[in-house]
Design goal:
Length: 413
């Protein structure tokens, strides 16, 4: 009989898996500097490469969420980690633009089910009033990896190269998959309340009712916009600071640790604050944060010194982190646990489509404007404005609580 771990241990395992996934995503943004040279890529080709992961990732969001709701989180989590680890290792064997695009696309599909399944597991093992904080702890893995990755990349890429690096990261993933197989469980099975994967006993859930909920569409738009900013900055920041600001790889690695710490703090504090917010205050806090992000992006691009740029980037990171935890927190707090996987898959599809489009669009713009990033920064500022409007349009209590509507729909079948 499998030993049932407490919720904090489950959270620790999810944090470990999410950390590895974030490491691979962030490390590609630095590895691409040498990959571009080895494979002779243009800025446009580099943008397509950085976007290829998100194409596969976006495609699997809703299927991954549906599978987690139907069969439980455990199987989806294990399969996701195994698949993404295999394709991470295969990245090191890429020999051309075409091969690495296919590998990164398949890697994205492999990882696609992880976040919806992890979100469902959080909803199953944590009470509603603690879910935002639990999610914020997991998402701080992104801040932690953003902090570690610059200096990690600077030394590992110099010492063993990008090919060996991806192979070793893939091997670590297999170890994590083994841990998941041994210790992760479906909370319904542990409690004996529901037979996950048994249609006769499991509560019904689906996308039909979610698609009819206005809140979900506002969240999807907000997800798309804020992740366009997040991944647009994350994917191109190393290249921008190297090409435009003239930073070396080691200087780049050290300086980027500062906004990474700010992001880490923003994620952790955001989860704590959101568990305390009620009565729709979340949307106003999110809209204000988006407005600040837009202003900081303008100041970043026009900063006269690298020091000023890093200061504005750090402020951006704090408020960006808050919005990134705000959106899944709303899903976890307002959507019933039986539909959490599908709901997270739906809204996160918007976020990952942005991850596909934004890096590629920036690459096109940089080529079109002969190395200038001005148009790209204005595009990101525009996304913050749209995100502000989408968050202000949220009315979590209009026409009744979405959770009550979804629960009623599930009851009626």
């Amino acid at each position: 009989m499998r030993k049932v771990l407490g919720s904090n241990w489950v959270l620790a395992l999810l944090f470990l898996g999410w950390s590895l996934g974030n490491l691979d995503r962030y490390v590609m943004n630095y590895a691409v500097l040498t990959i571009t040279e080895d494979l002779s890529l243009s800025a446009t080709s580099t943008g397509i490469l950085l976007s290829s992961f998100f194409a596969g990732y976006a495609i699997m969001q809703m299927p991954g969420g549906w599978l987690a709701d139907k069969f439980g989180s455990r199987k989806v989590l294990i399969l996701s980690v195994v698949l993404w680890s295999i394709f991470t290792a295969m990245t090191g064997a890429a020999w051309s633009l075409g091969s690495i695009l296919i590998i990164r696309f398949l890697f994205g599909m492999g990882e696609g089910g992880f976040q919806p399944a992890a979100s469902k597991l959080i909803a199953g093992v944590f009470p509603q009033e603690k879910r935002a904080r639990a999610m914020s702890i997991i998402l701080t893995s992104g801040g932690l990896m953003a902090f570690i990755t610059p200096i990690f990349s600077a030394y590992v890429l110099d010492s063993i190269g990008w090919r060996h690096m991806f192979v070793y990261i893939g091997f670590v993933g297999i170890i994590i998959a083994v841990l998941y197989g041994k210790f992760i469980y479906n909370p319904q099975q542990a409690a004996g309340a529901e037979a996950v994967g048994n249609p006769a006993k499991a509560p019904k859930s689906g996308f039909g009712q979610l698609f009819k909920t206005p809140m979900m569409w506002s969240l999807l738009i907000a997800y798309f916009c804020i992740y366009a900013v997040n991944w647009g900055l994350a994917s191109w920041m190393p290249t921008y600071l190297s090409d435009v600001r003239g930073l070396s790889m080691k200087s780049l690695g050290l300086l980027q640790m500062i906004p990474s710490v700010a992001s880490f703090a923003g994620l952790f504090a955001g989860g704590y604050l959101l568990d305390k917010m009620t009565g729709g205050k979340e949307r106003y806090a999110g809209a204000f944060s988006c407005a600040v992000i837009g202003a900081m992006l303008y100041l970043m691009f026009n900063a006269s010194s690298v020091e000023g740029f890093i200061i504005y980037q750090s402020v951006t990171s704090i408020f960006l982190a808050f919005v990134l935890i705000l959106l899944p927190a709303i899903v976890l707090k307002k959507i019933p646990a039986a539909s959490t996987g599908s709901a997270m898959g739906m809204v996160n599809t918007g976020g990952q489509l942005a991850g596909f489009i934004a890096p590629m669009a920036i690459g096109f713009m940089v080529d079109a404007f002969k190395g200038s990033y001005e148009a790209a920064f204005w595009m990101l500022i525009g996304f913050t404005l749209v995100c502000t409007v989408a968050l202000l349009s949220l009315n979590l209590n209009k026409g009744g609580d979405p959770e009550e509507k979804l629960t009623l729909a599930e009851t009626n079948g």
